[in-house]
Amino acid sequence: MTDPITGATESAAEAPVIVSRDGAVAIVRLNRPKQLNVLDVAMGEALLAAFERLSADATVRAVVLAGAGRSFMAGGDLTVFHADPGAAPQAAARLIDLFHATMLAIRGMAQPVIGALQGPVAGGGLGLALACDLGIASDDATFLSAYTKIATSPDGGTTWSLTRLLGPRRALEVMLLNEPMDAKTALAFGLVNRVVPPGEVEAEAVALAHRIAAGAHGATAAVKRLVDHAVTATFAAQLAAEKASFVERAGTADFREGIAAFLERRAPRFEP
């Protein structure tokens, strides 16, 4: 039997992560909807494998990361720790290693990753959402750190992302008070790029991914790399990085096509 949405077989449709293609856009779907897509080891392994595979696939020009059901991701699977409290540190280390490797894969891949964010986006789900390059939120999305409510501190790059996006004081407020943030507030604070009506978030993310995928892939990858570098670089170092990137791009066929298209007042036809 074939899943009507993903085209996957029935057994594949039960996998913790499902990857599908829409032309040059790949869609990675977290697939534990009954558990609000909370992260366990099986999902962690599958998610890391998916992003490593897509990163190496030159035919993929943009990626959408979505969650099945009513939540993007509501954090980690706390039953993993409750089952054997004495082994909680070891279990946490294993799960976080997988999760952090996925974060590094997302940040390091050339293709932009767009989060399609709906429902509860909590705990590790918040870190995962912020690791994406862009975020489209459903109007019903809520964002919550939640870690101190279970007497621990954040993972998934949450302290890094929130501090840089919000500044230290507001980041501390979000992580210490654990007050749910609605989508419109997240938009105003720069945590997401757009807010759309419920039910439209994945379609909007895919449409945006196609717009990006239609551009010059090398230029897109260069912008992602430069913005990531800018977070910690000095101004002088960033100027040098921008020059090196521009000079490198100036030697490509896509650059020549872009210049010709501009002067001829037509849409560019970049390499597929």
How is this structure best described in words?
The protein is an alpha/beta fold. The chain has two domains: 10-213, Alpha-Beta Complex (2-enoyl-CoA Hydratase, Chain A, domain 1), CATH 3.90.226; 217-263, Orthogonal Bundle (Lyase 2-enoyl-coa Hydratase, Chain  A, domain 2), CATH 1.10.12. It is built from twelve helices and nine strands. It has a six-stranded mixed β-sheet with strand order 1-2-3-4-6-9, with helices on both faces. A three-stranded mixed β-sheet has the order 5-7-8. Helix 2 links the parallel strand 2 (25-30) and strand 3 (62-67). Helix 5 (124-131) crosses helix 6. The longest helix is centred in the middle third of the chain and has 21 residues, at 88-108. The relative contact order is 0.11. The model is unreliable at 1-10 (pLDDT under 50).
What distance separates the N and C termini?
34 Å
CATH class type of the largest domain? Alpha Beta
What fold name stands as the CATH topology of the largest domain? Answer: 2-enoyl-CoA Hydratase, Chain A, domain 1
Number of domains in the coordinates?
2
Structural class: alpha/beta
Widest beta sheet: strand line-up: 1-2-3-4-6-9
The CATH H-level superfamily of the largest domain is 2-enoyl-CoA Hydratase, Chain A, domain 1
Provide mean pLDDT, rounded.
Answer: 94
Helix content: 40-55%
The radius of gyration is 19 Å
Instruction: Please trace the helix and strand order, writing H or E for each element.
Output: HEEHEHHEEHEEHHEHEHHHH
